[in-house]
Every structure is written in structure tokens, then in C-alpha cells.
Amino acid sequence: MSEPNTSERRQFRLPDVGEGLTEAEIVRWRVRAGDRVVVNQIIVEIETAKAVVELPCPFAGVVAGLLVPEGTTADVGTPIISVDVAAGPPAATADQGAADASGSAAADRDAAALAAAAARELIGSPPAEGAVEPGMHGSPAPKAERQAVLVGYGVIPGTTARRARKPRAQWPGLAGLATEKTTGSNGATGAGPPASGERPAVLAKPPVRKLAKDMGVDLSALAGTGPNGSITRDDVLSAAAGRGAGERFAPVAAVSREERIPIRGIRKHTAAAVTASAFTAPHVTEFLQVDVTETMAATDRLRSLPDFAGVRVSPLLLVAKALIVAAARQPMINSSWDEENQQIVLRHYVNLGIAAATERGLIVPNIKDAHALTLPALARALNELADTARAGKASPADLRGGTITITNVGVFGVDAGTPILSPGEAAILAFGRVRDAPWVHEGQLAVRKVTTLALSFDHRIVDGDVGSAVLSDTGAMLTDPLRMLAWG
């Protein structure tokens, strides 16, 4: 079949995939100029403030150009890819009419809005004002949200593990930036060998590419001395110093002594959140040393019970349960401050946040309705939360809606700290390391298992007596776990 002689190009603009997104970083392109794409084919990975998300193409056709290079942060609404839709095969989805309609700006906005709606639905973002969230209070989704939408949006499994890099052909007109041949979600593959006029593949690791970009070195002009002809750091430094590839020399001081890391993604979001929290809510932090010998023994006992078979049980489980019970005894600790409406929002449920350090930065996913879970169910939820965070699969829905948080600083060998409140919460508990220490037990000096608890709370909401009661109750339940049964 002959190709059409006419050309009709459409631009796909970066959509808001949830929670009022204003910008996102282009992490990796799955296609390159000249590739044929179909509706719903995954074309790009973007990193928002909270998650890495895959975006599908709303158009069918041939990629005319990638408008934003990898590693670049773009504002929502910025055109990121241009597609020649006149050269594309018929799309087999319900969105064909919208995707292949006239190239007017209104049609482009419709496609982007549909894509954003699909993303928000699949990653659990809140509905637009006036819309009814599916499943909320038993109400169905509005008709506009139940129509066929673009698929393929969602958090990428295993985003903390870097994918193996293939030799990548450089983009025409973008020196030092490259894309790779990949297979889309529909099984379509990108173009094969570089077309005439394209530069040959360059083998270099990402840090080497960044170094070359910072020093203004064209990688395609170098002969690599590494394995399989790959370009090494020394090759780049040699070229920058005017020497031949492979010649040894002293590192350039300006390069080796400093490195500048862009502030973006989760790091940027975390910085903004903790700054706003620290300078908005008046923090008070109280400390309490606790004998947790009985808690450690109870943890060992739980591991042997059939109800906990196949579940990792740690002292954090009993700390979490103790805090949930303490919050029920002092409800104000589980509230939030509504500045706009001048109200205190008292929550009668607990979405328990667990601070997690990941390769992408600090995140605080939460266990929804933790107060309603049995101890075995809470243990499984903690396991799932930890696995999800470590694998980089936490979605915006997992990170939204927390009511009170625990940060386990003990895993880093730290005794205590002064944790900063998660925005919108009134309290956060830091659980320090458990260590052997001399302790007066039943009138005798003995070596016991001891930890330090630190509770930070918003003094606008939580008075000192309430904060102290929560900390004291939590400590008492960890000293004698049977109190959880009596008080819970």
C-alpha cells in the first residue's frame, strides 16, 4: 500500500496525570523519529513529583519528531512529540475518531484531556470538581468518565532498578542525546538500523554521557577504549583535554571536586513539603525511653503462629498497633488543621503512613483504614507497603490521604530524631533502634532491650498534655504488649 502524499502533523502535549501536576521530567523515550505508532502504544516514561508514569500515544501515525529530550523537565501543556497522522494506519480503538480527527487545536486538547482522565483513573488521583469518584458512597462514575479511554497509564513496575541499556542511535539534530529501539506495549517495535544520515550507535554509560554533555564533548566523534568499544570517563576527559583517546592524565580538578544534581522529581516535592510543614505548623517534639524487652519477645512469639506464616514480622508491627490504639484514646492526635475554613478536621479513621527511604528519595505511602485491620492483616499490609516502596511501585493514590505517620529511624542505627510532620497531619512518631542497655527492672539493675520514641506534633491542634498522653500510652503498650488488648 502506498504512503499518502499529504502530511498532517499532530502534537501531543504533556497532560496533568493527577493532583494538579505542573511539570514532569522526560525519563525515557520508547520511540524515535520515523517510528510508526498506534493509539495506546506506550511512547514515553515521565517522572512526576511522586511517581514514574508511562504515557500512551493518543494518535496513530509516524513520529515526526521528539520535541523534548530525555532528562528535561517540561511544564504541563508543553508539546512533547509530533506525529504525522496522515501516514498512520487505521486505529482499532474507540478513541480513533478523536485521535484521527482534524488537526485543530481543539481536537488536540480533547486527546490530551482524555489521556489525562485515563491516567487519573488508573493511578487513583482525585476526580475533577463536581465529579463522583467510582465506588465512593456506592455511586457510579459519571458518564464522561465511563467512556472508552486510553490505556497504558500507571506506575511502572520496578522503577528503582535501572533498565539495561542497548546501543542507542543519536537523535538527528540533538548531539549527545540518544534514544533506543524498544518494543511498545502493543508489541510494535521501533525502527531497526539507523537510517541514512543518522549517526552511528554510541556505547556509553549514563554518567559518561552526562560528563560529556557537561564538558561539551561530542560522543559520536570519540573512539571508545572500553569493553566492546564503549566510551569511558577517561576517553571523555582525554578529549576535553585535547589528548588522544586512552591516554592517561590527571583528572580535571573542577570536575572531580564538585557535582551539580538537578532538583526534581521526588526530591523537589519532598523539599517543598517539608519546608512548608516546618514553617507552617509549630512543631513540638517529645522523647521517651522505653523498655521493649517484652515487645521483642512478643515479636518472636508472633512469628511462630500459623496466622503469620509467610509474613515478615518485626517490632514495627507492634509499634504501629500501639500508635493506632493510642490515637483512638486521644483522637485529636489524628486530626488536621484547615486554615482556609478555620476548622480542625477530626478523623475517625487511621490511614497509617510509613516513611520509606527509596532510591528515588523519601516517600510516605500509607495503609488505608489501618485501624480496622486485625494484627495479621496489619502485618501483611506493612509487608506489601515495604515491598511496593522498595520496588518503586508506589502510586500517587498510595501516597495520598495519610492521617498519622511512623518513621523507623532505628533501621539506620539511630537512637532518635526530631521528625518533621507530613503535610496535613498532626503527629509523626520516630521509632529508634533497639539496643541492650542497663535498666532498673522490678527493683533490680538488669540489661534490657531499650528504644527511644520521639513524637512530633502540631501545637496548634495538639496540646502538651495530649501529645504526652499519646507518647506515654504508646510506650506503656510497648513495655507491656497486653495493654494493647486491654485498651484496643
Present the secondary structure layout:
Layout: E1 9-13, E2 23-29, E3 36-37, E4 42-47, E5 52-56, E6 61-66, E7 73-75, E8 79-84, H1 96-99, H2 105-123, H3 143-146, E9 169-170, E10 178-179, H4 206-215, H5 233-240, H6 253-257, H7 265-280, E11 283-291, H8 293-303, H9 315-329, E12 335-338, E13 343-346, E14 352-354, E15 356-358, E16 361-363, E17 366-367, H10 375-390, H11 396-399, E18 404-407, E19 427-431, E20 435-441, E21 444-458, H12 464-479, H13 482-487
Parallel strand pairs: 14-18, 18-19
Antiparallel strand pairs: 1-8, 2-4, 2-7, 3-6, 4-5, 6-8, 9-10, 11-21, 12-13, 14-17, 15-16, 19-21, 20-21
Helix pairs in contact: 4-5, 9-12
Identify the notable features of this structure and list them briefly.
488 residues; alpha+beta; OB fold (Dihydrolipoamide Acetyltransferase, E2P); Chloramphenicol Acetyltransferase; 13 helices
